[in-house]
């Protein structure tokens, strides 16, 4: 690997309009999902039945749902198993987190707020909802997962008292049983019931304030993912996840797109644990900054399009976000925008330890990975992945290009896992590319099919974080997707004005 180098296209002229509109179209899902391959391995009994997204009720108009987990509770702070008990309350830190979420969502025009009836969730909802006129809508099915005899125990007490059962809860939660119940399976059933009521509400924009496990189940079940995805799509205290539902012609179940996962009040790269487990291996997918289009730079190949002024700012903001991370390596697409974004991150990383007089520059490995390159067809914003995918069933050239992108993402994902190294050392890998290739990599991480690419959305300048608590040979845990809060005033808002954005 070579030490990071300056881009050869530094002298490109700046675009005439450095701040284009920030309201970019997202990628609505357009097709019925194929079932993902099973993520369970080895024994553990028969896997639970997969809950399909096709069970969602049909919609007459588009709807956005924002899920927020409650702030830190007293039992969170103590390391005590809460389940659906209603004893803990918000800590001062939890109250502060809820206030930050309120400010984050202040300009959003929600039509309704559903909330768990448990005190820690209801108090969070009251802080976020604040002076809005409509009453909160309590829903008992939004309570946290029922953990029966585990509830109230410190985690080390659960391990000591229940031994094998507790280990099953930690290692094979989908098939975990206690007191004659299967808590995670019951939770998925409850999530499906919740969607019936949430989507039946007449509002176009709905806020839901609940808990860690139930929000995981809501996200996964909406996408047609089963209980084996428990603890794979993280929900941090006061983290916000955004789901968009688009009506289907003929009245079938709506298409679903996860616009973002777990946008937190604090930095998504600050913690070194995933789902309560320490992790030493991490991949950060960084989307390149915004680029000039081909008309502006007068070339036929969009791979040559440099960052525009907004893209330069986005790359700098991403580099600042990662400043305190000791990045071991950076892989990027050979295309100019990705390389320039990666170079900015690399330069800031190498300067991070040189703020004093007696400093030694940090060396960061950086290299181009051909498998991260994306076809020119996807560099333009005239068509979304969803539109290409739908037209592609007729055998269009664009759909063949999408297939090629998907196929090359397999080799790219394996290359990333190889870079992580299967040992006990800590390793953080930053991967810089176009949102399209990063979408494919997220689907590869989750072991999904190509059809799911349009079920996720990534903005220019966003980051997505994947942890590997069991090493690169284990399952990836998605800490967040499409995180943009670090972009500040240049970020895409968590939700967008409904009146001016027909497709959200």
UniProtKB/TrEMBL annotation:
Record-listed substrate binding positions: 69-76, 120, 155
Keywords: Chloroplast, Hydrolase, Plastid, Transit peptide
Keyword Hydrolase included in the entry's annotation: yes
InterPro entries reported for this sequence: His_Pase_superF_clade-1 (IPR013078), His_PPase_superfam (IPR029033), PG/BPGM_mutase_AS (IPR001345), PGM_Phosphatase (IPR050275)
CDD domains tied to this protein: HP_PGM_like (cd07067)
Keyword Plastid: yes
GO molecular function, one term: 2-carboxy-D-arabinitol-1-phosphatase activity
Family: Belongs to the phosphoglycerate mutase family.
Name the record gives this protein: 2-carboxy-D-arabinitol-1-phosphatase
Species in which this protein is naturally found: Oryza rufipogon (Brownbeard rice)
